[in-house]
């Protein structure tokens, strides 16, 4: 959902750009994904959202995790940047995503597995679910985010053209 200071805008009526932060929450070779069928089409993606003007990417991911998951992150690891290009209908998108990752311990896993969606900033149709990394590769968008899932790996700059 577009918020007041989000850094996303239309270049033309057929081209859109967005600057986002995304978080890979990893637990025992699985990843937390959001399934949303709010606009009729099923979308599966990692938690995150638009960076707002005057906000750092890390501040954005912390804000988004409070809003979408009701959790405070301790210290997410910056993993790199994903540039994504895709089309949906007549609109072409260019998205720049700052990717973070965090290992999820048993306590946080339990909290995330029992979310109370009424108190969160997600669509009424959205549900969080844990997927194996292999399952995630089949359903999530953008798929290139999975290239950032290995902890301790060097910073990456990935480009995904769909």
TrEMBL record:
Q: What does the UniProt keyword field contain?
A: Hydrolase
UniProt name for this protein = NUDIX domain-containing protein
PROSITE patterns given for it?
A: NUDIX, NUDIX_BOX
**Taking every annotated instance into account, which residue ranges of this chain make up the domain Nudix hydrolase?**
15-154
In its UniProt entry, the species of origin is given as Schleiferilactobacillus harbinensis
Question: What Pfam families has UniProt attached to this entry?
Answer: NUDIX (PF00293)
UniProt superkingdom: Bacteria
């Amino acid at each position: 959902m577009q918020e007041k200071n989000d850094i996303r805008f239309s270049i033309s009526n057929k081209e859109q750009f967005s600057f986002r932060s995304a978080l890979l929450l990893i637990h025992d070779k699985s990843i937390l994904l959001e399934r949303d069928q709010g606009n009729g089409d099923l979308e599966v993606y990692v938690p995150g959202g638009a960076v707002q003007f005057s906000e750092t990417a890390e501040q954005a991911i912390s804000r988004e995790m409070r809003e979408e998951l009701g959790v405070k992150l301790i210290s997410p690891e910056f993993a790199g940047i994903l540039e994504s290009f895709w089309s949906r209908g007549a609109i072409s998108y260019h998205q720049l995503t700052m990717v973070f990752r965090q290992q999820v311990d048993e306590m946080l896993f339990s909290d995330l597995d029992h979310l109370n969606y009424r108190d969160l900033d997600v669509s009424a149709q959205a549900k969080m679910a844990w997927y194996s990394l292999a399952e995630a590769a089949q359903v999530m968008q953008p798929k290139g985010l999975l290239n950032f899932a290995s902890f301790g790996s060097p910073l990456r700059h990935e480009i995904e053209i769909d």
